[in-house]
Write a structure and sequence with these properties.
The protein is mainly alpha-helical and 466 residues long. It has helices at residues 3-14, 20-52, 58-61, 76-93, 96-100, 102-120, 126-154, 160-172, 174-185, 195-211, 221-226, 230-247, 277-298, 301-307, 312-323, 328-333, 342-362, 366-393, 400-452, 461-464. It is built from 20 helices and no strands.
């Protein structure tokens, strides 16, 4: 395979204009991300029901009860198992999409999710609930890494910001569904089966439907070209070009010269070479910081509302109202996603999150708590789509999945332990102490992206990584 031919594959993808064909692929890929978000967010909403059924007593937790030595107890063991599984999955299998292809990993991670989460819904002890939660996390933790890689490689630079905004809008669109299901189901026991178990099972059923749509998603031509599978790459690009050309009157924009991205064998060590070391470290620190705010609020919102004096029932109701705004952040961001530098969007989102959390700590009326919660959610989700696209842009195709996986793994590890810290702060200092912790983490994220983050607006992947 000549480097010119590999560059031609990239140039043909990058010249594609906005079209139904391109957006359909992005939409189908995004549906896969729906179930990582469903899984992550149901943690907060099923918590009251899980706790009520008594599955987190020391006797029920078995060996997980020993986590009390590091001050992890009760429902905290479930949160810890969730993010510990995600961390192991990303670390162990983050390179899988670089080795086996984006589509294969996308497909099999969905199957893993369906099987393990369905089994988890029928567990009767905290010990086995946590075990299956951990196993499920190992599998679906790699899903979002693969999706980020997938979208970055298939979408031209002029549309990349909006593509990630659409991806996150679709993904976050499931959060109000989770909140509504929890609000309706958690206090009840349909057919004698705990409501929270129904909420868990609904996610597995939906994932099966998405798995059936996978045939409409092509493999990444950039990945195929990098593996020397040139004919397959050309066939996929040609098929996309035919569809796009038909939408645009039979013509496509002329090809533009692009930089050559070197292929060949890759290893985890490559993300620490001179060109990528600073990006890897910068994104690792950023991921560990941003997740403290993102999941520190979203995974604890009903509990934080209760800590502000709201009852459990009203807490779930208010959390549902806040959750309705989840997909609106990326939808709002799509207006400026490709007009404003990606790192500026990230910094702005983090700043609003810090201010909103401080305001939430002092608010007391339901209206203010909800409005501030919505403001925090909008900012967090603008920040989220921007950084998912940003980190995927900063590495070449041959190591993109493992690099994003490594950086992203620090968010999973930080989430596991920040849940412990937030629980402790909530018990000792209340919501104000949590606000200080989250605000400090946001400032760290702002500093590392602002000082060390390169600009990416409108640049081809090969220009950023030649």
């Amino acid at each position: 395979m000549s480097s010119v031919t590999s560059a031609d594959i990239a140039a043909r993808l990058d010249r594609l204009p906005s079209s139904r064909a391109v957006w359909t692929i992005v939409l189908l890929i995004s549906l896969g991300a729906v179930f990582e978000f469903y899984d992550l967010f149901f943690t907060a909403y099923v918590a009251p029901g899980m706790i009520k059924t008594g599955v987190f007593t020391p006797q029920s937790l078995g060996f997980f009860a020993s986590l009390a030595l590091i001050r992890i107890g009760g429902f905290g063991t479930f949160v810890f198992s969730t993010f510990a599984g995600l961390w192991f999955g990303v670390v162990l299998f983050g390179q899988a999409a670089d080795r086996f292809g984006r589509k294969a990993v996308f497909t099999w991670s969905l199957i893993w999710y369906v099987a393990c989460t369905a089994i988890m819904a029928f567990q009767r002890t905290g010990q086995w609930l946590n075990i299956w939660r951990f196993i499920a996390g190992v599998g679906f933790g790699v899903q979002l890494v693969t999706i980020d890689t997938y979208i970055a490689e298939l979408v031209p630079p002029t549309l990349r910001g909006r593509a990630f905004a659409l991806n996150q809008c679709v993904s976050f669109g499931v959060v109000p569904v989770v909140a509504l299901l929890a609000w309706i189901m958690v206090p009840r026991q349909p057919f004698g089966f705990d409501g929270w178990r129904w909420v868990v099972l609904f996610g597995s059923i939906g994932a099966i439907v998405v798995w059936g749509l996978r045939s409409g998603i092509p493999e990444s031509p950039r990945w195929l070209a990098g593996k020397g599978r040139l004919e397959e790459a050309q066939a996929i690009v040609s098929a996309i070009e035919v569809k796009v050309s038909a939408e645009h009157g039979g013509t496509l924009p002329p090809l533009q010269p692009t930089a050559v991205e070197h292929g060949g064998a890759a290893s985890l060590a490559d993300i620490f070479t001179a060109k990528y070391r600073s990006r890897t470290v910068m994104l690792s620190i950023f991921n560990a910081a941003q997740v403290i705010g993102f999941y520190g609020f979203n995974s604890w919102v009903p509990t934080l509302l209760i800590a502000r004096g709201v009852t459990i029932t009203h807490g779930l109701e208010y959390a549902f109202i806040i959750a309705i705004s989840q997909p609106l952040g990326p939808l709002l961001g799509s207006v400026f996603a490709d007009r404003i530098e990606r790192k500026a969007q990230i910094i702005g989102g983090l700043a609003v999150m810090a201010v909103s959390m401080a305001a939430f700590a002092s608010a007391s009326t339901p209206v203010m708590l909800i409005l501030i919660g919505v403001a925090f959610t909008l900012a967090a989700n603008i920040m989220s789509y921007a950084y998912h696209g940003y980190q995927a842009e900063l590495f070449p195709t041959r190591i993109r999945s493992r690099a994003v996986g490594f950086a992203y793994s620090w968010s999973r590890l930080a989430a596991a332990f920040s849940g412990l810290i937030i629980g402790s702060l909530l018990a000792t200092g209340g919501v104000p102490a949590v606000a200080v912790f989250i605000g400090g983490a946001m400032l760290v994220g702002i500093a590392v992206i602002g000082i060390f983050g390169p600009s990416t607006k409108g640049l081809a992947l090969e220009q950023l990584n030649d």
